[in-house]
Specification:
The structure is a single chain. The protein is an alpha/beta fold. The protein has a domain at 341-487: Isoleucyl-tRNA Synthetase, Domain 1 (Orthogonal Bundle), CATH 1.10.730.10. 46% of the residues lie in helices and 16% in strands. It is elongated, with a radius of gyration of 26 Å.
């Protein structure tokens, strides 16, 4: 089995500053990337910005700036957000980079030579906001304004000469792809949605525009720019130095293991993208995962509604790791979710401060007082010790399976359960009453230390900074974290020195 793993975030559209939806996609992708690294995989984790199209051109004009200068500034806010979110991405691609232009034009040339692209005229409804064309039955009128039923974005009638991709030709091949690999699109509800759309009949897709200039030129016709989705989607290849298919990055990491996307761009990734690749005789990605939205109240966030949730404000008030923990634990992955400050505070106080932080504090304080901050010697596990320690080895394959199938909630539920069990164990064993039975005392403390180590490793992809502070107790560095070590019940070497720990999470007082 290949030990390489390639995961991508959506390529973000920098027409405005990042919001919580962007943060969520990135945090989720980072979670998987970090887990696969500690599982021993060579991970390539990509994020970036999609900087072409009419929407960007109009936003730049509105701000009285050249499009590239406008993109430079906004793209930097997404780069800064990557750092603020403590993402472990290996690359950040921009579609205005030369390497991307080379990839896109190469893909276009292949499709054109294969007769997959032809020149005609487009007439139909177009959403500047979505950079998407919509059929008549996908458009509705309210208060004299026509908008997409899919996204709610305003549409306008467009008539112009356009190059078309023969999408209709690939309808049966796409259905065959979905049939052969029932996990190509997850969750299942998204798969059903895509299959229904494709079965209803695919029409050829407009892949160029003539009415604006901000984009990559069609190599064979300078009057046209390549339509944003054929341009944007190719970033997943251009980051791997395509069209150099002999390059190690391309050879090692394509096809991609997971494209992590929001459900609003599912059609582009699960229909158009594999069709482009099939037409160019290139391997298709292994999986498209369309997660839900992070809502503001009960609505999708949008600049026009003025309901943008700023992740930086939440981070400044509550901290990064609590936000990461909340989004991964409280949002039912695949479905829509929202930020509730009450639930966030509850997560911080109950799970992080009480269950995890307090466990670390109590065990370390007791170890310092009674064992001079040394891993106990003379251990003899009893049945109860082994039962709680073996929970991790017994569930190891399940945990790997959760990750491989993007089952975040089951993974998080396991951690929460183990934090509760570890605290209960320490309370029930009452080590403070075992000082006359040194072997039993040693075994309880050793077991408790091992539980902290195992839980901290599982928490590393979720709350990396806080987890590393806990692992620092045992002098375990980030490079030394190995998920397989949770199967080892005697990992800690008896007699070695361990360190004190500061308070990991401060409780938050409710405003009520």
């Amino acid at each position: 089995m290949s030990k390489n793993y390639y995961i991508t975030t959506p390529i973000y559209y920098p027409s405005a500053k990042p919001h919580m939806g962007h943060a969520y996609s990135s945090i989720v992708s980072d979670f998987f990337a970090r887990f696969k690294r500690i599982e021993g995989f060579n991970v390539y984790f990509l994020t970036g910005t999609d900087e072409h199209g009419l929407k960007i051109q109009r936003a730049a004009e509105k701000n009285k700036k050249e499009p590239l200068k406008f993109c430079d500034e906004i793209s930097n806010t997404f780069k800064d957000l990557s750092k603020t979110l403590n993402l472990s991405n290996d690359d950040f691609i921009r579609t205005t980079e030369k390497r991307h232009h080379i990839s896109v034009q190469n893909l276009w040339n292949i499709l054109e030579k294969k007769g997959e692209i032809y020149l005609s005229k487009y007439s139909g409804w177009y959403s500047v906001s979505d950079e998407a064309f919509y059929a008549e039955d996908e458009v509705e009128e309210k208060n004299g304004v026509k908008s997409s039923k899919v996204s709610g974005s305003m549409v306008e009638w467009v008539e112009e000469e356009s190059f078309f991709f023969k999408l209709s030709k690939w309808q049966n091949k796409l259905l065959e792809l979905y049939e052969k690999n029932d996990k190509f699109i997850l969750p299942k509800s998204r798969r059903n949605e895509v299959i229904s759309f494709v079965k209803s009949g695919l029409k050829d897709l407009s892949v160029s525009r003539k009415s604006f200039s901000w984009g990559i030129q069609v190599p064979t016709n300078k009057d046209h720019v390549i339509y944003v989705w054929l341009d944007a989607l190719t970033n997943y290849l251009s980051a791997l130095n395509y069209p150099n298919t002999k390059d190690n990055l391309y050879k090692d990491y394509w096809p991609c293991d997971v494209h992590m996307i929001g459900k609003d761009i599912l059609r582009f990734h699960a229909v158009y993208w594999p069709a482009f690749l099939l037409a160019a005789d290139l391997p298709v990605p292994k999986r498209i995962y369309g997660h839900g939205w992070i809502l503001s109240g009960d609505e999708k966030m949008s600049k026009s509604k003025g309901n943008i949730l700023d992740p930086l404000e939440i981070i400044n008030e509550y901290g990064l790791d609590p936000l990461r923990y909340y989004l991964l634990k409280e949002v039912s992955f695949g479905n829509d979710g929202n930020i509730s400050k009450d639930k966030l505070i509850s997560c911080i106080n109950s799970d992080l401060a009480n269950n995890f932080g307090n466990l670390c504090q109590r065990v370390m304080a007791f170890t310092e007082k009674n064992m001079s901050l040394q891993v106990p010697k003379n251990i003899n596990f009893n049945e109860e010790d082994l039962k709680i320690l073996n929970k991790f080895s017994d569930n190891y394959d399940n945990l790997i399976d959760y990750i491989n199938n993007q089952n975040i909630n089951s993974y998080m539920n396991f951690i929460v359960d183990q934090m509760f069990i570890a605290n209960k164990y320490f309370n029930d064993q009452e080590p403070w009453k075992k000082k006359n039975n040194l072997k039993r005392l040693n075994s309880i403390i050793y077991t408790s230390l091992e539980l902290i180590r195992k839980i901290s490793i599982l928490l590393y992809p979720v709350i990396p900074n806080s987890s590393l502070k806990a692992l620092n107790i045992f002098n375990i560095t980030e490079e030394q974290i190995n998920i397989e070590s949770i199967k080892n019940n005697k990992f800690l070497e008896s007699g070695t020195n361990i360190k004190k720990i500061d308070i990991l999470f401060k409780k938050v007082l409710s405003n009520d």
